[in-house]
Write a structure and sequence with these properties.
single chain, 231 residues, alpha+beta, Glutaredoxin, Glutathione S-transferase Yfyf (Class Pi), Chain A, domain 2, four-stranded mixed beta sheet, 8% strand
């Protein structure tokens, strides 16, 4: 069976992506949580993660003797795994052109949007609209990242039959689930059509399950909390 190592659901945006994929498509897997206790080399988290992969980060997917790290690599492996064992499930769009476009959006998310990531870390349980307004007004990079997200989502939605970016739910939607979490936490403004897409994404089975479990954690990790001093 597949085994997925993840971090705290409230904070770990990279862990969210493959977990949501597996849950949405009902692919059986075992979850192992490596709870964050700091990211210093001697922390329990880093020691445990280093035993799994050379980068000492989560998520990590283990399948038998195979270890796959990095979220995009995991997504690609899961797509191949599903094609072999769950052929009715297509994790990438079936159309070649749409599949290439979806991969492009995921790769852009994977390597970009540093301003939004840095200023608005994922924190599902928090509500920080005043922080979002301050960040958006004071950091041009965040405003530029938000504008790019709106443009890419509108472009994808206009070319698909909906309700998701490329019609049916795919890796691309799972990849943007943590972004949806950020936009909700910091109440960043969105046009109505994009907000409606994010509502559909938030209500999708895998995302809703992750959010439910994130809210149940009730952890407060001060090193993940630049804007709060308590829950």
């Amino acid at each position: 069976m597949l085994k997925l190592y993840i971090g705290n659901k409230n904070y770990s945006s990279w862990s969210m992506r493959p977990w949501v994929l597996l849950r949405h498509f009902a692919i059986p897997f075992e979850e192992v949580v490596l709870r964050f206790d700091g990211f210093e080399p001697g922390s329990r988290f880093k020691q445990a993660a280093r035993r799994l992969s050379p980068v000492a980060q989560v998520p990590v997917l283990v399948h038998g003797d195979l270890v796959v790290w990095d979220t995009l690599a995991i997504a690609e492996y899961l797509a191949e795994y599903a094609a072999e064992f769950f052929p009715e499930q297509a994790l990438w769009p079936r159309d070649q052109a749409a599949r290439a476009r979806a991969r492009s959006l995921c790769a852009e998310m994977h390597s970009g949007f540093a301003a939004l990531r840095g200023a608005c870390p994922m924190n599902i349980e928090a509500a920080l609209p005043e922080v979002g307004a301050r960040v958006l007004a004071g950091q041009p990079g965040v405003a530029a990242d938000l504008a790019r997200l709106v443009a890419m989502w509108r472009d994808a939605l206009s070319a698909s039959d909906g309700p998701f970016l490329f019609g049916d739910f795919s890796v691309a939607d799972a990849y943007f689930a943590p972004v949806a979490a950020r936009l909700r936490t910091y109440a960043l403004p969105l046009p109505d059509d994009v907000a409606a897409y994010l509502d559909r994404l938030w209500a999708s089975p895998g995302v809703a399950a992750w959010v439910h479990e994130a809210l149940a954690e009730q952890d407060f990790l001060d090193f993940e909390e630049p804007y709060r001093q308590r829950r």
